[in-house]
Design goal:
mainly beta; elongated; 8 helices
Length: about 575
């Protein structure tokens, strides 16, 4: 029986199972140069090709690489740790400029020989202006087999090209192995990503670099949704790029733009952010500044430029947009301050997901606007033509009605009021004190006094805004103790009240240490003795002296607690 079995086995054909070596990129993205730093033009970068010999006798490999000819230059091919130290190593290279590998389903498989056999190329300087092919034959002579490690390392120099150059990946189109006896290893696998992307330092390839000058008083929420839109003026209204410019307002554009091309840069906000910003920007001191400048004008209809002391502020004060500063502007500003109207609103049909362009001006132009040139100032966008080098672009924005520029970009040498730890702080340091106390509620009617010490300043205007929970209390009315002043109270949706008063004649300023110009009355919607809620002051507050100048406000607290007496039992 054993002899019969042996005879059968000898008659069976012998099948040789050939090992399959595999080659692939060590990484599909590289972000550092050979020294470990961020990659900029002129640096040397290194890409590794890995080998798994898979118990084969692979020695040499024929490679086909593609890269952009003007972007990177092959410097050298170095042996990797997968090639034994005692092995002899050499390589030869042939360069094909203006050639591109035409990728198809048949030549992008995981089999290197198949990809080689089905390779197709386009070589033409007109249709392939940037790419090149590098074919590299690596020869290894070794008595030892290769290790599972890096086979070779390709070193490239990042060429000094023009800014905005359209970089691309380095591709391994195919790799074919040859065994120790010179046999072609048609089963060589090419696995993993086909390309390696060279990830430049963000500033390495810029065409336009700049910043938007934000006001410190614009909320972080509104800044975060402000967008810089770039449109191609040759293909209007095509948007070439856009970028959010919150935080410090910095921006840069590289591959998104083309060289030597004119663009328009404009700032925009979502439609539902426009009116809140306008409401916050136009307050008491904007009106008093404008009215003081207007009422003290010279008899020849020229202005003294004392209260409104910058050309861009006149542009902001011209809210009726007739290229003049006149009494009509004061009416509209007064309407806005008293809550009757909002100066800047998106057009009809611009829904919440619509972006509304805000006036955008190059900073050098913004700073140079004088008392005449403001009338012809262009604010829709900023024109800039790219070149082949990095250029700087500094942008400002301004809102109609924001006469003191509290929520617009400041003129370079200007200082402005800002909100710090709940207080309104002005550059010259002058301020009034506002004392606010918590209230123990003993009934359904709640009175909240606003106690003011003007600290010797003669006030001509005062304004606050509070927010409350409309499900727990209802605003009833405001009591005023500002004789001969015009008062206003503007309840808004979601439990917000804006209120204040103005010296209508600018002849009866408010001054004193123990004043209560305002007292708000609320009514509890449930049992007042069980109430536990708060009234919170927002940053929309303002004060002006009898010359129309803004003064600061120091608050004892930004939160007024309303606590029913039953909470203490």
């Amino acid at each position: 029986m054993k002899n019969i079995l042996m005879a059968v086995l000898l008659l069976l054909p012998f099948v040789k199972v050939e090992a399959q070596p595999a080659l692939w990129w060590g990484a599909n993205t590289i972000s550092t140069n050979i020294n470990g730093g961020p990659i900029v033009k002129g640096d040397t970068v290194e890409m590794e090709v890995k080998l798994n010999p898979n118990f084969s006798s692979i020695r040499s490999v024929f490679f086909d690489f593609q890269h952009q000819k003007d972007a990177i230059t092959l410097l050298d091919v170095q042996r990797g740790a997968g090639i034994p130290q005692a092995a002899n190593f050499s390589y030869t290279n042939h360069y094909y400029p203006h050639c591109r590998f035409n990728r198809t389903a048949q030549n992008t498989t995981t089999n290197g020989w198949n990809n080689y056999a089905n390779s197709q190329y386009t070589c033409n300087s007109q249709t392939v202006p940037y790419h090149a092919i590098n074919r590299i034959m690596v020869n290894v002579s070794s008595a030892q087999n290769m290790e599972h490690a890096t086979y070779i390392k390709l070193r490239f120099r990042i060429t000094q090209t023009v800014a905005g150059f359209p970089y691309d990946s380095v591709y391994m189109n195919f790799a074919i192995g040859y065994d120790v006896n010179g046999g072609t290893m048609t089963n060589t696998e090419n696995v993993g990503a086909k390309g390696v992307w060279i990830n430049f330092s963000p500033s390495a390839n810029n065409l336009i670099v700049g910043d938007v000058k934000h006001s410190a008083n614009v909320s972080a929420g509104i800044k975060s949704v402000m967008r810089l839109s770039v449109t191609d003026t040759l293909q209007q209204p095509t948007e070439a790029a856009n970028m959010f410019v919150g935080g410090n307002g910095a921006f840069s554009f590289a591959q998104q733009l083309q060289n030597n091309t004119p663009y328009r840069f404009r700032l925009a906000l979502p439609a539902d952010s426009v009116a809140p910003l306008s409401l916050a920007a136009t307050t008491i001191s904007d009106y008093t500044m404008a009215v003081q400048e207007f009422i003290t004008q010279n008899l020849d209809r020229t202005f003294k430029n004392e209260n409104i002391n910058k050309g861009i502020k006149y542009w902001a004060a011209d809210v009726n947009m007739n290229n003049e500063f006149d009494g009509g502007d004061l009416q509209i500003l007064f309407n806005a301050v008293t809550g009757l109207d909002t100066i800047v609103t998106p057009p009809a049909g611009c829904a919440a997901n619509c972006y509304y362009t805000i006036p955008t001006i190059e900073r050098s132009v913004y700073d140079a606007v004088n008392f005449t040139s403001w009338k012809t100032l262009s604010t829709n966008f900023v024109n800039k033509t790219t070149t082949t080098a990095e250029q700087s672009l500094q942008l400002n924005y301004v809102l109609k009605g924001d006469v003191n520029l509290s929520h617009s970009s400041l003129v370079t040498e200007q200082q402005a009021a800002m909100y710090m730890f709940g207080d309104l702080v002005v550059p010259d340091g002058r301020s009034i004190d506002t004392k606010l106390n918590n209230v123990v509620v003993t009934g359904d009617t709640i009175n909240i006094p606003f106690n003011v010490d003007t600290k010797g300043i003669a006030l001509s205007g005062l304004q606050y805004e509070v927010k409350y929970d409309p499900t727990l209390v209802k605003f009833d009315r405001m009591f005023i103790d500002t004789p001969s002043w015009v008062s206003f109270v503007h309840p808004m949706p979601n439990g917000i009240i804006r209120f204040g008063a103005l010296d209508k004649d600018l002849k009866n300023p408010l001054t004193g240490a123990n004043l209560t110009p305002f007292r708000l009355r609320f009514v509890a919607l449930k049992a007042g003795v069980d109430l536990n809620t708060s009234v919170v002051l927002t940053q929309v507050m303002d004060a002006a002296d009898n010359k129309g100048n803004q003064v600061g406000i120091n608050l004892s607290s930004t939160v007024i607690r309303l606590v029913g007496i039953s909470n203490f039992r």
